[in-house]
Design goal:
Blueprint (H helix, E strand, L loop, with lengths): L1 H28 L11 H13 L18 H11 L12 H7 L4 H12 L12 H13 L10 H4 L18 H13 L8 H6 L4 H13 L2
Helix pairs in contact: 2-5, 3-5, 6-10, 8-10
């Protein structure tokens, strides 16, 4: 009787083996698992952008812009302008930023713009000379009629909040970053705004550019 039971068990195992082999083969031929969903805007900001702009977009490095609270449409446009395509070079020149956005899709850029726009701005805390600030205040709100320099407020608003989607908010931005951008517009190294800014800054003196950049950093 014991021998008969052993024979039955062996037969069952023999029949099960081909089934197990078929299941293993079926598993190996199955379609690969779907890739994980792309990281959300917060994850991209923390992993790709944080080194220069901080996870919430409040950069503490004066040469890097504060993104927190900026208009979503403006940020998205700038990210897209940094990215070269197969047929066209980047519209805004920055080797660093071009490498950062290379792997981002348009949807990623849109979500990043929305993410940073929702963050609370921590304005620049760098102190500036009072006389320089007074000159900058006059230029920002009244321009320089003698030299044909329009008031910055006419495009960026009296409180520096900007006019979406074309004119960015500037209030509280680092003076060093603003001055660098004004100089890039002046030399033509930045021209992704239909040359609007180049026409303005070409009429400004170096002192005026420093003054208005300093004043913008103190706007709240």
């Amino acid at each position: 009787m014991k021998m008969f039971k052993n024979m039955v068990m062996l037969a069952a195992l023999a029949m099960a083996a081909p089934l197990a082999a078929e299941e293993t083969a079926a598993d190996s031929n199955a379609a690969p698992a779907a890739p994980a969903a792309p990281a959300g805007a917060q994850e991209i900001a923390a992993g790709v952008c944080a080194g220069c702009h901080n996870p919430d977009g409040n950069s503490v490095i004066p040469m890097n812009p504060i993104l927190a609270g900026q208009q979503a449409e403006y940020i998205t446009k700038q990210l897209m302008d940094f990215k070269a395509t197969e047929t066209e070079p980047a519209k805004r020149n920055s080797p660093v930023m071009s490498s950062m956005v290379a792997a981002l899709s348009q949807d990623d850029m849109k979500k990043l713009g929305e993410y940073y726009a929702q963050q609370k701005t921590v304005p620049s805390q760098v102190a500036a000379d009072e006389k320089l600030l007074e000159t900058g205040k006059i230029l920002y709100h009244g321009g320089n009629i003698e030299h044909g320099v329009p008031a910055c407020a006419s495009c960026h608003g009296p409180n520096g909040s900007g006019i979406p989607p074309r004119y960015p908010g500037v209030a509280g931005q680092h003076a060093e970053y603003t001055l660098t951008q004004l100089n890039l517009f002046n030399t033509g190294d930045r021209s992704n705004d239909s040359n609007v800014m180049q026409k303005v800054v070409s009429r400004m003196s170096a002192q005026e550019k420093r003054a208005v950049s300093a004043y913008i950093s103190t706007m709240r």
